Amino acid sequence: MRSHAAYQLIGDRSHQCDATATYSANGVRAYALCDGIGSTDAVRDWTVTAARRLARAAAVRANAEAGLRAVYQVYAAEPDRQNEILRYDLPAACAVVAVTAPGKPLTVAWCGDSRAYILTEHGALQVLTADHNDRRVRGGSRNVVTSYLGASETDEQRKAKDRHPAIESVTRGAENCRLLLASDGAYEPLEDSARDLADYLTGSPSRAARDLAESAIAHASAHADNATVLVADISAA
User: Fold this and answer.
1) Where is the PPM-type phosphatase domain (predicted)?
2) Residue 1: pLDDT above 70?
């Protein structure tokens, strides 16, 4: 049985602009999810490439934050992203990445409002990330993100504006658990409907990923977003 699986649905969007990727190197495995901002061919293609780059960078560095920062800085250094006018026409995405290695803690890093959760052996679901959006910063709209892959702000610049760094990270002690990465189109409809995401994380990773994404679309409002889920079983051994 595969230890991880991803599933996504397009919802009511014109394009599927979410993407997932995994990469393994020297016993280290990285799982990445990117939620593209906008619905165009360019955003769709860019997000697929970004997810792959992110997973590889994190696995090679054996650390989620180091990988995300490396990819973030590459995009931030692009000349057009330094231009206050041109930058907003370039593709971008919210991103979350998790890295596992035998006997080592789980590391997670993110920019934006894609989330990472773990389901413990005791059945408790815990969110590891804190959304980068205006709801967190000012109590405003959750649909206005305050950090993302493709931005050019440094940690200090982002803190001055939105009171959180451009990239945040967390380390979780090694334990047997089920990892969930989810785009906002996957977790928001279920939370809005007072559903417990843990209820959809049973069975194999492929079944859990499918069940959660399908349920998100079924419980969405009149305009369902892209719903993307990656589920992985993590062993502490």
Assistant:
1) 3-234
2) no
User: Rounded to whole angstroms, how far apart are CA atoms 62 and 190?
Assistant: 32
3-state secondary structure of 226: coil
Asked if residue 36 lies in contact with residue 2, where contact means CB atoms within 8 angstroms, the answer is no
Q: Given this model, what pLDDT does residue 237 score?
A: 67
Q: Which two tokens stand for residue 28?
A: 């280290």
Q: How many residues does the chain have?
A: 237
pLDDT average, residue stretch 132-150: 95
Q: Which domain holds residue 28?
A: 4-234
Domain count, the chain: 1
d(CA 217, CA 237): 36
Distances (CA, A) of 92 to 57, 80, 118, 138, 152: 18, 13, 26, 22, 11
Collapse the DSSP code of 55 into the 3-class scheme (helix H, G, I; strand E, B; otherwise coil) and give the result.
Answer: helix
Return the CATH number at 214.
3.60.40.10
> CA nearest 59: which of 103, 100, 108, 2?
100
